[in-house]
Amino acid sequence: MEPFPKDGESAAAGEPSRGAAPSSGVVVQVREKKGPLRAAIPYMPFPVAVICLFLNTFVPGLGTFVSAFTVLCGARTDLPDRHMCCVFWLNIAAALIQILTAIVMVGWIMSIFWGMDMVILASKYKDSDQNPDPRALRNRTWPVSQAY
């Protein structure tokens, strides 16, 4: 391990080294890669997400089970290429995993984190309604009467 940074490296994040120009920098974008179960969490209205979090906190898996039915009601997910029934069954599988592993506390903790993810996604969904971007509009489900 070297005690001093090399040329072009910085000693602390955000602090330019002696030889680098203050305006030079690299922009790094980080995108979270979600697995199929996590990507199947639906974007719900905020009050519904809070209710699911409450249910998941006290009865592990119940809020996830309820959120599975919001998919059948047209809630959008991060799996736009999957059929609605497939996403529904992925959410049911997540609820069953939470219920079955709640005995050893893993499912209960997973259930609470799942509910927190629902609330976070609901707040993002609420913000995207105020400032819609083209990606959000492309994945949005439209009523059947307007589709034809």
Features of this protein?
148 residues, 54% helix, mainly alpha
Strand and helix order: HHHHHHH
Main pleated-sheet profile: none
Overall pLDDT: 79
Distance between the termini: 65 Å
Number of strands: 0
Helix content: 40-55%
- Which term fits the overall shape? globular
Query: Residue ranges: pLDDT <50 for 5 or more in a row?
Result: 8-13, 142-148
Structural class: mainly alpha
Q: Could you tell me the strand content as a percent range? A: under 5%
Compute the number of helices.
7
| CA-atom Rg in angstroms | 21 Å
Strand and helix map with partners:
Elements: H1 36-39, H2 46-58, H3 62-72, H4 84-100, H5 106-130, H6 134-139, H7 144-147
Helix pairs in contact: 2-3, 2-5, 3-4, 4-5
Description:
The chain has 148 residues and is mainly alpha-helical. It is 54% helix and 0% strand. It has seven helices and no strands. The chain has helices at residues 36-39, 46-58, 62-72, 84-100, 106-130, 134-139, 144-147. Helix 4 (84-100) packs antiparallel against helix 5. The radius of gyration is 21 Å and the shape is globular. The N and C termini lie far apart (65 Å).
